[in-house]
Amino acid sequence: MTRFIVLRDKSGNWQRPSVPTIAAIEPTRPGEAGQPDITMLDLDPRQLREASNDPSLLAMAPVVPTRLLAPEPLDDLRADELVPGWGQRAIGADRTHMTGKGARVAILDTGVATQHPCLEGVSLIAKDFTDLGIDDANGHGTHVAGTILGRDMGGIRIGVARGTDTLLVGKTLADTGHGTSDRFLAAVLWAQSQGADVIGFALSFDTAAHIEQLTAEGYPMTLATLAAVHANRGNLRIFESVLRMLDPATRPLMVGAVGNDCLRTISPEFETGPSAPAAARGVVSIGAVGPGDKGLVPAAFSNAGPTLVAPGVGIVSANASDGVRSMNGSSMALAHALGVAALLTQHLRADGQPVNAQSLSNALIRSATRDGLAPHLTPVDRGHGLVQAPRGPLD
């Protein structure tokens, strides 16, 4: 028996392709959308074939393991340049007139330390998808939350959007940093139903763990590898379809950390692209930068090909208890971008403009700059540029 994610459309608004296609599922009647109908079923090969006869079926894929994009060690930090708050200064958060007030930010992570002093005054709306409780014994989710909206700690500024008053917390990863793709999708739909303006995640589909799982079940290595890759692709397509099915007028912006899989300290050729699900169409992927000799450069670990970049090296934010700690990772860059998205949400509303995935992604990309980045960087390294906080009227 294998557990499958099953995406259906009982409304008839969306059509199932008659032949396999790379194209996303298109609405039968343009402009119509509906809440995606997702269920989880345990199926053997015979039941799988029977289920595929359902005319409302859009897609099916096996549930896959997920893993946290865990913080990375970095031994060559330039301590003289990496002082607390350097990330906020690099993105202009110390010069903006916006605070993020009114924005609803969601993080799908390891939970949060609900009593942390940096979250004082923040309305926490939480849902646990792990059956372990919402509290964060890992520390990653709390660090990310602190960078997004944390209040000052002992005179140290850690938060980008310190006026953001609502944080949606979906605990999709256990304290060990492991989870499953069905929990992730359920958390996405939960955050959307709670009125999130922007949803951020720092996890990836764990193909290596899936291969290990399948070989333990008796699969030959070659078949296990092919099955895991196929399942990864299927989950990515279901996620893309779910995003397409949400009402574009209210769909939240999805922002994902690009991944920490590169090994540039060993060789400049040891690079890879965005991890899934950050690689999905409709997701703004964020890479990490840190200081170089001629400006900010991609962190040695940060995956290539991001949509945008943000500070992700030596970032001081909340730890899992009541203090602060420094971390490195594309997760830390993601947190800066989510903070800027909160500032832009307030800015768009103040301008009388709608807030949704399209308007927020446009605002993020439009405000990005190459100033401060090393001049030799290409779009593969920096995407559209370094995220920037709003400073005046939107163009």
TrEMBL record:
Q: Which InterPro entries match?
A: Peptidase_S8/S53_dom, Peptidase_S8/S53_dom_sf, Peptidase_S8_Asp-AS, Peptidase_S8_His-AS, Peptidase_S8_subtilisin-like, Peptidase_S8_subtilisin-rel
| Lineage: superkingdom | Bacteria
Region of interest (Disordered), ranges: 375-395
Give yes or no: UniProt keyword S-adenosyl-L-methionine.
Answer: no
Keywords attached to this Swiss-Prot or TrEMBL record, sorted alphabetically, are: Hydrolase, Protease, Serine protease
What positions does the domain Peptidase S8/S53 occupy?
Answer: 100-370
Q: Of which family is this protein a member?
A: Belongs to the peptidase S8 family.
Q: What is this protein called?
A: S8 family serine peptidase
Give the source lineage, highest ranks first. Answer: Bacteria, Pseudomonadati, Pseudomonadota, Alphaproteobacteria, Rhodobacterales
